[in-house]
Specification:
This protein is α/β, with parallel strands linked by helices. Helix content is about 20%, strand content about 30%. Helix 4 crosses helix 5. Bound molecules: flavin-adenine dinucleotide and FE2/S2 (inorganic) cluster.
Length: about 350
Amino acid sequence: MRVASVAHDTDDSVIVSFDTELEFAHGQHLTLRREFDGTEVRRSYSICSAAPSGELRVAIKHVAGGVFSTWATMELKPGDKVDVMPPAGHFSHELDPAAARSYTMLAAGSGITPVFSIMATILSSEPHAQVSLVYLNRTSQSTMLLDELQDLRDRYLGRLSIAFAFTREETGGELLSARPDRARLDRLIAAGFLPADADHAFLCGPIKLITEAEQALVAAGMSGSAVHREIFTTNQPGRVSLAPQEVTETSVAVATGRATLHGRATRFDLYEGDSVLDAVQRVRPDAPFSCRSGVCSTCQAVLRDGKVEMTVNYGLSAAEVARGYVLTCQAHPTTPTVDVDYDA
Ligand SMILES: Cc1cc2nc3c(=O)[nH]c(=O)nc-3n(C[C@H](O)[C@H](O)[C@H](O)COP(=O)(O)OP(=O)(O)OC[C@H]3O[C@@H](n4cnc5c(N)ncnc54)[C@H](O)[C@@H]3O)c2cc1C
Ligand code: FES
């Protein structure tokens, strides 16, 4: 895709717009690919525009020492071409223009990007919806999309409430002036900043905050299936190997499998230490993946037959796991055969 513009947002983040009218759902992300010193790097970035707006853009925050974000925030410029995979992800829900639903949103740092898209889409597509956002940052200066959030609040006056919480700046209210732990989250719910009686909650930020917020909302009466969450990062190493391990004469075959991808089924062998993705990738280099760390869910597939164990799972909800979805980059077979369907 051709980059249409790169606008500076905070001191360490940029908003990148693409010259395209690609369709996407609110809350989805793009995986951007680029070679650094001959090594391909893939990183996911959530779309931060309203789904009906026709605009496709992402906001990228610089991570100290980060391979992709350093390049994107310092070198990327209008006119550059970037390799982008189709929009993916399920941090989303069915819109209903006739419904009068209420929504609770919690975002921390760059976690605002999908939440912004979700809020802007809901407010324009569901005219009776009410949205409450708590947005946590270190300071107002480090707050991404600040002006755009204020514009959104002005445009949907009375339907969108935003509480900015800062960990290193006074907000004028004690409740919003520290990193929320579980006790503080309970108080934010009781005070109405994070309504637990909302129809849906969308939470995006570091895993500890999001897990505690989900637990607090459920403890306050919200149904677990109404809580949607997205995690951007775990403790994954910066450069995860993108290639499967090499098969040698000493490799021990442990299972066989079948993968359906783009309408075509292919058989594969799994060796000791392989994830399902590793094994599929050897015979189908077009297998989708990005983080290889169980976070982004780009590699998800439905397990049609056999059983697997996932090392970690930050990307799939309990409902998706119950429907048979697995993260193939984390899935290791516990049966002699497995059958995965990437097209499901
Ligand atoms: C579904 C999804 C959506 C995402 N959306 C966005 C988005 O909209 N905007 C955005 O800026 N980022 C987003 N991210 C994070 C993004 O994909 C990259 O992880 C991030 O830009 C760092 O990549 P890097 O190559 O610069 O750093 P790397 O070279 O991968 O990492 C360098 C070091 O920083 C650590 N690290 C990686 N990411 C973070 C982080 N976010 N915070 C703190 N430490 C980190 C790593 O563990 C590593 O030690 C998203 C991630 C996912 C999975
Ligand atoms: S590639 Fe990101 S979860 Fe598997």
